[in-house]
Amino acid sequence: MTTWSALPGLQRLRFAGRADLGAWPVAAGLVVIAIVFGSLNDRFLSPENLTNLALQMAATGTIALGIIMVVLLGEIDLSAGSVSGLCAVIMTILSVKHGWPPLVAIAVALVGGALIGLIHGLMFTRLGMPSFVATLAGLLGWQGLMLYLLGRGGTINLPFDGFLASLSDTWLPPWVSWLLVVVIVGVRASSAVVVRRLRTAASLPLGSVLGVAVRLGGLALALAVVVAVLSADRGVPLLLVLFATLVVSLDLVLQHTVFGRHMYAVGGNAEAARRAGINITRIRLIAFAAASTLAACGGILAASRLAAVNQSSGSSDTLLVAIAAAVIGGTSLFGGRGRAYAALLGILVIQSITNGMLLLSVDSSVRLMVTAAVLALAIAVDSVARRGQAT
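^ that's the sequence the OP posted. Answer follows.
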């Protein structure tokens, strides 16, 4: 079998180029979506609508982050929606009915999510159950437990003036938003300098300084546009900041830690990773636990935005949209390829399409078919790219 190190230089470059295309088709798609819906309805690109769009994507996007952790291994988690609803219910019951401090209730819900993911991981690694079956059982079981905890009432409201509900009703002052832009760009520039110094010390090839400058300029421009647009309405929502922080943090873990490299190795070829000395069971357990923890976090954000939990929490199309967001954003269903930013890009695509069609009063049946077409296209592109790399 041909190894990576044995490939001629030109062929390696061609393969790397294909992998690097990941985000660009999605970004181009977002531009097309903005142009189409912006021309059909002038409210689509208004600050008010874009602020609502930011609020809509935070909860499901966080769940999609967890989906990415499992999909990178070439597996699937069908329980994410049910886990998000169950953990949100646990948090609400502890906070509202038992009077626990909100932060403690949130911590318990997150720990509960991690334990659920660990159970799924053990069913997969120790019992040999396919991840599809293990998490499908979880989907049904955890949803049943959620309904049991809710009881006959079926709905528990959060106090509108409480900490939990205020998470989705907090807006950053303009000066704080602009300060965040400066800090983010400054940190990114500093990290680029450090990376160049390390690569120089290790006698590794350096990228173009112009390329780094262009990327930094693009990042600064994108952040400035987001802050300017959202500040024209109510400001940058705290929910968006929390979601973006999770995206960046997870991407740093996946791209710049030993655990992250092991994740990609196990997803790319589990047997080769095992022979290289990687504890694939540990990696899989951590991935499933992290996926359910992020699902719990997404459920908490959704409960905050609705200021309530009910029998539909985490159900409906939550799971399907989260999986679609991960795949549309560029995460390969075959494992071993994708980044945390896929959740951000994918959920932005799906919510933009849904939001635009709602503004145009498009029937729900058409919205489902359009979303299905976008998902099918994303999977087709991934399949063709992977088949091309295999040859």
